[in-house]
Design goal:
heterodimer; A: about 375 residues; mainly alpha; ABC transporter involved in vitamin B12 uptake, BtuC; B: alpha/beta; globular; membrane (chain A)
């Protein structure tokens, strides 16, 4: 169909002149004017990716057993059949790298990416900067599942019982919050968040009950589960979590443009051809999948999903096509750093990572809040 | 089919969208038949019959709460009709999917608020999204640029939408709607925050859009503008159409005064155009507080000695 806006019965030369001008404008907008942001986005991606690589090497290198950077690289090269550098020279270096540190680092990357993307997705789909996976009860639901499993000492799935129950309950809680908030085929955002508050309260009570009823050792386990840790991550766990996170992170890319439209509001998005409810339902499904699998083995890690997308939006702008992958990288980088800090800040102690992210994330979020309040024009 | 149309989560491909066929001028593109809308048991629209033809600009006027926006919301499918039917290009609204509707009608709502700090260029570009994956997509840059040029918002392109003034937002949002390039244009008080120049610019563009063979429905409060730019006007009163037809027939002093419950004068200039204005009393200028503002109760306003009629301030 031709555009109905090309109308005015102007003279031929005037029309040609106008056409030239429009083409010039188009060129301006298409290329020249968009360059700064494109450059900035590319730079951000490069910095994040480089940071992630550097952090991976640093984190693999340092710890109780120090393995020099070149030996870390050498070990990795050896694994893929290149013999460029020598592997770890010290005893158990190879074992420490491949059985302890690398699975842990990869787990942090995968979980961080999942949490970052889930946060960006939630904020986009509800057009609300306060939305966070925790809001709809993924984390607390998962915690209920884990607590019950620990309290009852269930082991019908062996070592996977607690993670499996955490995953299932996280998924179940999220979807039930969504379905409870839905009415007449529509979801009001405020209703959803308030439903989340109600469900979170119930989940909190159940967790309290489990903590209260559990014997001392189980109680410790419940408490520590909720603080989150990558301690004891194994390749077989990574193998379970990674595919779900990868699928989720890729799936959201296909929603990116429609998420942009939701920033106009629900109705205008619908007027532009977005099936808002379907998009929401799928997003919730992806969020539930991402976050439930992320927390299943590692426990609750708060604030990553809230802070990472906000920070990146300030740097690269709100377009979801860049924001979603950047949030994945940013979340991964943040958690690798946090896990490194958790491991090395205090000698011979593994700090709970959820505690660290909240400790840093809380004040940071407060700063963001002040910053965006002082700017006219809402959330950056 | 674009890969973006993949049905995430279900693994099924969306059905293809039927592209619109440009209407012939004079065709009825939008038809309301006995439309009733009740919201929370209150009847907002009551038996609306209206047909909108390609090539005309139809203005909808009426007092606050007459049901203008509800009517537009019913047409867009955002408000379900209680009874009656609405059809678009000869088929009920429900027969089209969201993208097919977006290819056929663009909608400008009152106060478009944007959650995240998108630039005006981003916002206008969003208007092109229904055409993603169609051959029309290749002209996106040109269409976006010309839509912004028409509304004089090219200079705003890099500004963040949320930092704009009300009138500038109106122009940016209108550019987005133009960029959608749909044969039906539905506008809900598009001129509300605009200065006179841009009000006229917008109505002129609406006129051009209609004259090119599209249908334009616009809710306006400025009766002069409605009279000057419309082919037909519909005057709504308490959910019914009080009058429908050429502006000269509909906008009579008696009818407007009755519908708005306020004396309104309609004058006809020599060229036949209408001047519409409420009757206003002559204002006594510079009275310097000889009368109190009749707010009841204790209010922190200048106090006067009413009884003596001296107009002397007592504080």
């Amino acid at each position: 169909m031709t555009s109905p806006t090309r109308t005015s019965p102007a003279s031929r030369s005037a029309a040609r002149e106008r056409d030239t001008r429009i083409r010039a404008d188009a060129a301006d907008l298409g290329l020249a004017a968009r360059t700064p942001r494109v450059g900035r986005t590319a730079l951000t991606f490069i910095v994040l990716a480089a940071g992630l690589v550097v952090m991976t090497i640093v984190s693999a290198s340092l710890g109780q057993l120090i393995i020099p950077f070149d030996q870390v690289l050498g070990s990795v090269f050896n694994k893929i059949g290149l013999h460029w550098l020598d592997g770890p020279s010290r005893a158990f270096g190879e074992e420490a790298l491949w059985n302890v540190r690398f699975p842990r680092i990869v787990m942090a990357i995968v979980v961080g990416a999942a949490l970052g993307v889930a946060g960006a997705l939630m904020q986009g789909v509800f057009g609300n900067p306060l939305a966070e996976p925790g809001t709809v009860g993924v984390s607390s639901g998962a915690a209920v599942g884990a607590s019950c499993s620990i309290l009852m000492g269930w082991d019908f799935l062996g070592a996977l019982t607690t993670p499996a129950l955490a995953f299932a309950c996280g998924l179940f809680t999220t979807l039930s919050v969504y379905l409870l908030a839905r009415r007449d085929g529509r979801t009001e955002v405020v209703t959803l968040i308030l439903t989340g508050v109600a469900v979170n309260a119930v989940a909190g009570a159940l967790i309290s009950f489990c903590t209260f009823a559990a014997p001392t050792s189980a109680r410790d386990q419940i408490v520590f589960w909720q603080m989150g840790s990558f301690n004891g991550s194994r390749w077989n766990q990574v193998a379970l979590v990674a595919p779900m996170c990868v699928v989720g992170v890729i799936a959201v890319q296909f929603m990116a443009r429609r998420l942009d439209l939701l920033a106009l509001g629900e109705k205008p998005a619908r007027h532009l051809g977005v099936n808002v409810e379907r998009l929401r339902f799928r997003s919730m499904l992806v969020v539930a999948l991402l976050v439930s699998s992320a927390v299943a083995f590692c426990g609750i890690i708060a604030f990553v999903g809230l802070v990472v997308p906000h920070l990146l939006r300030i740097i690269i702008g709100p377009g979801h096509r860049a924001l979603l992958p950047a949030s994945a990288l940013g979340g991964a980088l943040l958690l690798t750093i946090a896990d490194f800090a958790a491991r090395t800040t205090i000698r011979f102690a593994d700090l709970p990572i959820g505690m660290l992210t909240s400790l840093v994330g809380g004040p940071f979020f407060f700063w963001l809040l002040r910053r965006s309040r002082s700017k006219s024009g809402g959330w950056a | 089919m674009s890969i973006r149309n993949m049905n995430i989560g279900m693994g099924v491909l969306d059905r293809t969208h039927r592209p619109p066929v440009p209407p012939r001028p004079g065709d009825t593109v939008l038809e309301l038949n006995g439309v009733d809308v009740e919201i929370d048991g209150r009847r907002i629209l009551d038996g609306i019959d209206l047909d909108i033809r390609a090539g005309e600009l139809l203005s909808i006027a009426g007092p606050n709460g007459a049901g203008k926006s509800t009517m537009l919301n019913a047409i867009t499918g955002d408000v379900p009709v209680t009874s009656g039917s609405i059809s678009l290009f000869g088929e009920p609204i429900a027969a089209w999917d969201a993208t097919e509707l977006a290819m056929r009608r663009s909608v400008l709502m009152q106060n478009v608020d944007v959650t995240f700090p998108f630039s005006v260029d981003d916002i206008v570009r969003m208007g092109r999204s229904p055409w993603e994956g169609t051959p029309d997509e290749s002209d996106d840059d040109m269409i976006v640029a010309s839509a912004m040029a028409m509304t004089e918002s090219t200079s705003l392109a890099e500004r963040v939408y949320t930092s704009l003034s009300g009138g500038e937002r109106g122009r940016a949002a209108f550019s987005r709607v133009l960029a959608q390039a749909a044969p039906i244009l539905l506008l809900d008080e598009p001129t509300a925050a605009m200065d006179v120049k841009h009000q006229e610019m917008l109505m002129r563009l609406g006129r051009d859009y209609a004259e090119a063979g599209c249908a334009v429905v616009v809710i306006v409060h400025a009766l002069d503008a409605a009279a000057a730019w419309s082919d037909r006007v519909a005057l709504l009163e308490r959910g019914r159409i009080a009058a429908l037809g050429a502006p000269e027939e509909v906008f009579t002093s008696a009818r407007l005064s009755a519908v708005y419950q306020c004396p309104i004068e309609v004058l006809r200039r020599d060229d036949g155009s209408l001047v519409i204005a409420p009757e206003r009393p002559a204002v006594r200028r510079h009275v310097y507080g000889r009368r109190a503002f009749p707010l009841e109760g204790r209010a922190n306003l200048p106090q006067f000695d009413h009884v003596s009629g001296q107009g002397k301030e007592t504080r």
